Amino acid sequence: xxxxxxxxxxxxxxxxxxxxxxxxxxxxxxxxxxxxxxxxxxxxxxxxxxxxxxxxxxxxxxxxxxxxxxxxxxxxxxxxxxxxxxxxxxxxxxxxxxxxxxxxxxxxxxxxxxxxxxxxxxxxxxxxxxxxxxxxxxxxxxxxxxxxxxxxxxxxxxxxxxxxxxxxxxxxxxxxxxxxxxxxxxxxxxxxxxxxxxxxxxxxxxxxxxxxxxxxxxxxxxxxxxxxxxxxxxxxxxxxxxxxxxxxxxxxxxxxxxxxxxxxxxxxxxxxxxxxxxxxxxxxxxxxxxxxxxxxxxxxxxxxxxxxxxxxxxxxxxxxxxxxxxxxxxxxxxxxxxxxxxxxxxxxxxxxx
Length: 353
Ligand SMILES: [Zn+2]
Hints:
By secondary structure, this protein is α/β, with parallel strands linked by helices.
């Protein structure tokens, strides 16, 4: 086991909560001017307009998000982790950086840059961070090459991929052959997979009220889970360790409907798998980012504590501000269930059983 949690300061020996957060995002402090380098735009730049603050701005001037130094500064992150008793954060890039829409060789360059950065942060702070790579998924050969480099050369534990892969002239769900090539390589290398919503369905028709984040993201994760289940992906790659963000989004609360669809229209739903959604619900992991104790209790009941791992979306505003607070709020949990959700599941997902 290579994860060796450091005792957070402020906690006496032996009583420190061991928490591994599988869902956190990081950016390098400085991003290259990709537009100048590649000759076309659409990439994110960082405008450090104030002390410890920056704006993420697309190179056509469109504002994306304001971030603080904890988005790029490992020291600021570790200080917050220590305050909350988080022993280890699993780092992944911000999905707006995926660049699946760009030319493949350029997405490859962006991926290598981001992955080198994440690996550097992990190396410089042993035990406090693990890392996930981003890949140029629009080109399976390049993606597999970068996956192998990320795992073997950089020591990253796995990959973060979008809930679907879309670019110029293609839009692949996660059961498409091009995606399966990469997932096969991930299984071969023992790399875990984190599926994060991005490029939300319906975004252009519901721009107000933050609906892409509040409505689109939960739908995106259900799309990803259903595509993989009905596509037979979990049967085809039984050793692949996949975790989905946001507690599985809309999937858990519509599992009954999805199961009913599988039973009533096998001609549509059971073409590539004979295993029902209920049977497949233990084939993957979910993070705990649901903001509601009743929903988390439901997840534990349906999927089991052994399938749930702490995830906070640190350092972003839709995340859990006090990591582990929701899990600890469930008084019905046994201590072994609590430990499993706060760190045990993450270890299994990162390292294998
Ligand atoms: Zn996130």
